[in-house]
Every structure is written in structure tokens, then in C-alpha cells.
Amino acid sequence: MTTAGIEGLDQLERAALDEDASLATALRQCLLIAGHAHHEELRAWALKQLTGYGSGEELPLFREVAASLEVTVQPHQGRRRLEDNRQISPHQIPQELRDRGFGELAPIRHGVGEIEALIAMGWPVEITLPGAVEYMEQVTDTFGNGSNVLSLHWRVPVTTLRQVLDHIRTRLTQFVAEVRAAMPEGQHRPYPAQIGSAARNTFSFSGGTGPTVINIAADGGTASVNDPAPMSPNPWWHRSSVIWTATAAVAAIAGVIATVVVAR
């Protein structure tokens, strides 16, 4: 599969703007463009949105979303056991969890495919606080009132999950717009330097890998992208090194002639 030039940007744009299609398609297109341009940060970003973030990995800010804290309690009523979700305040969770920074911001670590599947289910998502199981006995003592606390979790509305996807879709669209803005009229293949500039403007990345990287041309060609196109070489008499050498040679010859005249 080839993603090159304006065709590659067109494919990414169509995939990013088609809200009826999976966002994963647009991210895969972005991943290929980043690979061709040797832009490691853009490639890593697209891959993380596709596959998700591990429990120990730092999240971008847009993936930390407002969410309510809840406990699921199972009270005993005769022979029946009923589960009941109760919203709680961050001040009510164990101090150890508060010290770890847990509050009313929930981490969304899922890949976009998982997020889309959760949205399709149509009900809020419950995300268990990391390490909450260690404190479940303490939580039960606080909220159980003789009943059993089954979980301590964030409750994330479907609309909030949609906002995460919307942020990714908007960034991809902005990226395409930035690449197009960097390309002068008539240019059909965006240079990796232009890809890098668009990525910096869109994602605050630092840049690519160096001054000479692979162009995302369909024919697999290469280009030195941080330098302007090479100019035609100057005639030999316009080159400063030749001029200085010629001047020195003339001066030396004149000196020899003068010495011969004096010797006579």
C-alpha cells in the first residue's frame, strides 16, 4: 500500500472527516505517512491512539477526563442481594489514593477501537481506580455499613468518550490543513520537513530525525528536505576560491618579473 503526495493527504482527510467510519482508519493512514517521513514522534502518537496506553505510561491531557467517583455496594436484604452504585466525594476515598493523585479525573487508556466499541454499547463506562483492590477493606469499612463494597471506580459518560475521539479527529484534520498550508501551489509531494513542521504546529512535537530523510514520494525517491533545491553551479570564474587563487598567481608572477628586472 502506498501513501504518497497529495493522494496520501486526500486519503487521510477523507478518513478523518468521515464520522461514520472508524477513526482507526485515519490513524493508520497517519501512521503510514509518519513512517514514510521518518517522523518518530508522529508515528508513536498515531500508534498510541490506535493501541492505547499502558498503566504506567504518561497520558496526554485530553485523555484525562472529568468523571464522578462511585462505589458499588451490595447490601443484604433478606435472601436477595442488590447492587447499588453510590457517588462519592474525592475526600471520601482512602488517603493513600488521594496521595497518588486520584480524584475526579479518569484516565482513558483504551485504543480508539475499544473506545468506539464502548460508545456503541450506549451506557457509561466504569473504570476501576488503579490499586483500589488493595484498599477495598478500608472502603468497605467506610461505605459498607455492614454490606459488601464490590468496587471503587470512575463513571465516565458516553459523551465524554466521544469528546476524546473528537479531539483526535480534529487534530488529524488540523494536521492535514497544516501540511497543505506548507505546500506551495503546484507541489505534489509534501517533503518530510513540511510533515515535521505540520506535526509541530499540530501536536507540539520537536521535529523529525535530521536534515536528510526519506521523501514520501510514490516512487520511493529521496530528498534533502531541510535545504533548498540545489542551485546551478557558478561558472569557474565566479567561484571565490578560483578568484583568490588566480589573484595570488598573478601577484606571484608580477613579483618574479620585478625581481628579474632589478637583477638586470
What is the ordering of alpha helices and beta strands?
A: HHHEEEEEHEHEHEHHEEH
Strand order of the largest sheet: 5-2-8-7
**Rg on CA atoms, Å:** 32 Å
What portion of residues belong to β-strands? 15-25%
SS-based structural class? alpha+beta
Tell me the span between the first and last alpha carbons. 83 Å
Shape: elongated
Number of structural domains: 3
Oligomer state of the chains in this structure = single chain
Low-confidence stretches: 207-264
Calculate the mean pLDDT score and round it. 77
The number of distinct helices, counting runs of at least 4 residues, comes to 9
**What does the main sheet amount to?**
4 strands, antiparallel
Can you describe this structure?
- The structure is a single chain.
- With 264 residues, the protein is an alpha+beta fold.
- The protein folds into three domains: 115 residues, no CATH class; 89 residues, no CATH class; 33 residues.
- It has nine helices and ten strands.
- The strands form four sheets. The chain has a four-stranded antiparallel beta sheet with strand order 5-2-8-7. A two-stranded antiparallel ribbon has the order 1-6.
- Helix 1 runs antiparallel to helix 7 and helix 7 runs antiparallel to helix 8.
- The N and C termini lie far apart (83 Å).
- 26% of the residues are buried.
